[in-house]
Amino acid sequence: MSGETITPARPTATSGVLLVLAHPALERSRANRALAKAAKTQSGVTFHDLYETYPDFAIDIEREQAALLAHDVIALQFPLYWYSTPALLKEWLDLVWLHGFAYGIDGNALAGKRLFVACTTGGGAKAYHAHGYNRFSMDDFLRPLEQTAYLCGMVWETPFVVHGAAVKTDEALKAEADRYRARVASLLAPADAELGA
Ligand SMILES: Cc1cc2nc3c(=O)[nH]c(=O)nc-3n(C[C@H](O)[C@H](O)[C@H](O)COP(=O)(O)O)c2cc1C
């Protein structure tokens, strides 16, 4: 990869989870709205709704890089669209995670941070299997993000996935939202504590 070189100024202190939500029609969402509602009010979580902030896709690169620098954990939450991220999340990665900032010889701004993905799917869990109709696992579909974390020297956290989101009952969705809140809370603990060190 190649591109623009930016020398990032590292802040002296970083903290918390930057929760980046990418849903192009949150008013019609059930799953991501419920998940975001459960997680975003926790202390230590900075909630960032990409489509609300940039409805015109005019991303403020410096502001986004500053937000990345200021947090220990970068969480990306989105509905799976065509086995990938919604368009604005991809644009955000393309424009913000630049050579010299996120990767490259001097690009170490994200090194040591943790990357956490929370994703909802329309397809059920059985579809995401070698013998299911989507033929590949979620781990397979999320591989580009996992490799992005690796390239940037980040720690890849086990993703949080809600399958069959559209057909979940309100009760089931509430249970997923509780599970999500607990998972995000666990990310607020130092990484060493998670490993029992
Ligand atoms: C443009 C588009 C593409 C989609 N692609 C997929 C897909 O590749 N795999 C899948 O399981 N569901 C797919 N879905 C279904 C969404 O993932 C599902 O509706 C969403 O996760 C539900 O979350 P929400 O209630 O927050 O919208 C797609 C939906 C749309 C609108």
Task: List the helices and strands in order.
Answer: EHEHHEHEHHEEHH
**Spans where pLDDT lies below 50 across 5 or more residues:** 2-12, 193-197
Bound molecules: flavin mononucleotide
CATH topology: Rossmann fold
Radius of gyration: 17 Å
Q: CATH homologous superfamily?
A: Flavodoxin domain
Strand content: 5-15%
| Number of spatially distinct domains | 1
- Residues in helices, as a percent range: 25-40%
Query: Which structural class do the helices and strands define?
Result: alpha/beta
* Shape by Cα distribution: globular
Q: What is the class in the CATH system?
A: Alpha Beta
Strand element count: 6
How many DSSP H or I helices?
A: 8
Give the end-to-end Cα distance, rounded to a whole number of Å.
36 Å
The CATH architecture can be given as 3-Layer(aba) Sandwich
Overall mean pLDDT: 92
Major sheet: 6 strands, parallel
List the helices and strands and how they pair.
Elements: E1 17-21, H1 31-40, E2 45-49, H2 50-53, H3 61-69, E3 73-79, H4 87-96, E4 114-120, H5 138-141, H6 143-151, E5 155-156, E6 160-162, H7 170-188, H8 191-194
Parallel strand pairs: 1-2, 1-3, 3-4, 4-5, 4-6
Bound molecules: flavin mononucleotide.
The site of flavin mononucleotide has 16 residues, from helix 1.
